[in-house]
Amino acid sequence: MKSYIFRRTAYIVPMLLVVSVFIFLILRLNGTDAAMSYLNASGISPSDQALAHAKEVLGLDKPLLQQYLLWLKKALTLDFGRSYITGSQVSADMAYYLPNTLKLIGFALLLTVAVSLPLGILSALYKDKWVDHIVRFISFLGVSTPNFWLALILISVFSVKFKILPPFGTGGLSHIIMPAFAISFMSIAINARLIRTNMLELMHSRHVLYANMRGIAKFQVIVHYVLKNALIPIVTALGMHLGELVGSAMVIENVFAYAGIGRYTVAAIINNDYPVIQSFILFMALVFIVSNLITDIIYAYIDPRVRLAV
């Protein structure tokens, strides 16, 4: 198991290196002009001389390979350069916005588990009853409702109409509830449906049938023979949801004017701010890689068959 963890961890650096090369080339070969955006943000008329000077200031006048190697050399020391628009250190900005985003994502993930688990269990135990129909309807809404539209509805209801929660800004729990729910609603729906399907399949399996024939209490059968095994695929799903939650935060943070990495990055995309965009995509790649690694490790501990295969 230790060798497996070591091998998987060793893959992180080369994978991030490949991602960095890919995004570095895409940003510079996609037809956008960061120098023009820099001049527009500075209020300078984009003459040929001004453009040439801007490219020199931003380091865009050098060959692509040289630009990448200079960036990589600094990135290895966690120096991701300066924002083209604000001039501030990208690593310092990321460190400032990251805690807010982590709080939001952490609460959204907690909400996903706390809500989807009981919904999925109730839906399976009361199959084709009114509870099941309600949960299935919620699941349908969750996978078909755009999160930004849901965010606007939440603001309209809980902030404008009832004035219960603040519509915008960054602060305590009251500022996190609505954006976290908007981010996690789709994950809640998918997880609830997945738990229901897994439990129904296991409830008709042979080992559960034998447990019922032995006279084991129904509660023990559900908990020890059905629910425990049904949660194994959920671990994998949660690992995938973590990356999705971070991606969704880009949109939702802008709707709620929440000061997080997502809002910071969207502004950078609008202004072709290459250093910020590169740092965010590397962060996203790291989130996906680490979440998948943690998921595989947890999966191996839950399911002994996986552990033996490793």
From TrEMBL:
**Topological type in the membrane:** Multi-pass membrane protein
Q: Which UniProt keywords apply?
A: Cell membrane, Membrane, Transmembrane, Transmembrane helix, Transport
Cite the ABC transmembrane type-1 domain residue spans from the record: 98-299
**TM ranges:** 12-29, 104-125, 137-160, 172-195, 216-240, 280-302
Q: Which GO terms describe its cellular component?
A: plasma membrane
Would the keyword Transmembrane helix turn up in this protein's UniProt record?
A: yes
Family in the record: Belongs to the binding-protein-dependent transport system permease family.
Specify the protein name: Dipeptide/oligopeptide/nickel ABC transporter, permease protein
